Amino acid sequence: MEHAVTPQFLSTLLSIGIALTTAIIMLIVGHSLVRSFARDPMARRVRALNDRREQLKAGVAASKTRRRAKMEKKASISISRMKAILGSMKMLQDSQLKAASLNLARAGIRTKDAAITVIFFRLVAPIMIGGTAAIGVYVLKWFPDASAFKQYMIVAGSLLASYKAPDIYVKNLVTKRQAAIRKALPDALDLLVICAEAGLSVDLAFNRVARELSKAYPELGDEFALTAIELGFLTDRRQAFENLAQRVNLDSIRGVVTTMIQTEKYGTPLAGALRVLSAEFRHDRMMRAEEKAARLPAIMTVPLILFILPVLFIVILGPAACSISDNVMR
């Protein structure tokens, strides 16, 4: 006698399976939670301290220090070689080095040897990339079907692009840093107003604002910290503010610098002037955001025409075209 499998039996079997699966999952989760709660929270920290003590006993820290010193020595040797090569070719001029250092400072790079590295790669990159392109085009015949003018344009374009590549990279860093500083400036001015109304001096106010901005806006925090240091040891405080305007190279920062210089010179109230500047910069930021939002429909027109409308036409007209073709074929 054959026994048919009823739907009620299948549903009962499915319920039992779901219950068993749920019970197993709960058991695994509960076991892991019990183990995590039962584990000593200080055990990992004590183990890490013991490992660190053993490393110090074995002299690992000293070896790391020696390794770091060796790396710095190798970097200094390579920089000195770059300087010697550029000096022998008479390409390391003071004006060129000063301009490269200023651009790197605006990008947030303040090391002494970074300008030499940029100038060196500006010299070496066209030789390597342009030379490779010339050998590939004229010797190895990478583009045999191209005309003489196209081959010349390929080589010339590779030379120009490789020569401009370091400057383009630094300019990109400068643009990103200036955008971050412009975004953070209204909040920084509000903090400066609070510090000025609290009775802090200018250098102490810049130092406090730099500390407060170090996590949210590290770019402007670094600039304010450097300005606070210069205000502390420069004899002419105006030079510190002018250095800030020169490093950042923004019209808004120049306005702040002008306000600070006039405050230092004539003794005008600092809080009121900074409050007006903060409101103005915040309004400019809002206007810039509204301008980007207004440009969005015009920017989205081309992707809409190229990518969305053809798909929409296919979805709408596809079934109709299929039905028409079937009727014609009949």
Description:
This protein has 330 residues and is mainly alpha-helical. The chain has helices at 7-38, 43-58, 60-88, 94-106, 114-139, 148-197, 202-212, 218-233, 237-248, 251-266, 270-329. The longest helix is centred in the last third of the chain and has 60 residues, at 270-329. Residues 33-43 and 60-65 have low confidence and may be disordered.
The overall strand count is 0
Distance between the termini: 53 Å
Average predicted confidence as pLDDT = 76
Strand content: under 5%
Label the overall shape.
extended
Helix content: over 70%
Rg over C-alpha atoms, rounded to the nearest angstrom: 33 Å
Query: Main beta sheet: strand number and arrangement?
Result: none
Q: Which ranges are low-confidence, i.e. pLDDT below 50, for 5 or more consecutive residues?
A: 33-43, 60-65
Helix/strand order, N-terminal first: HHHHHHHHHHH
| Helical/strand content category | mainly alpha
Q: Give the number of helices.
A: 11
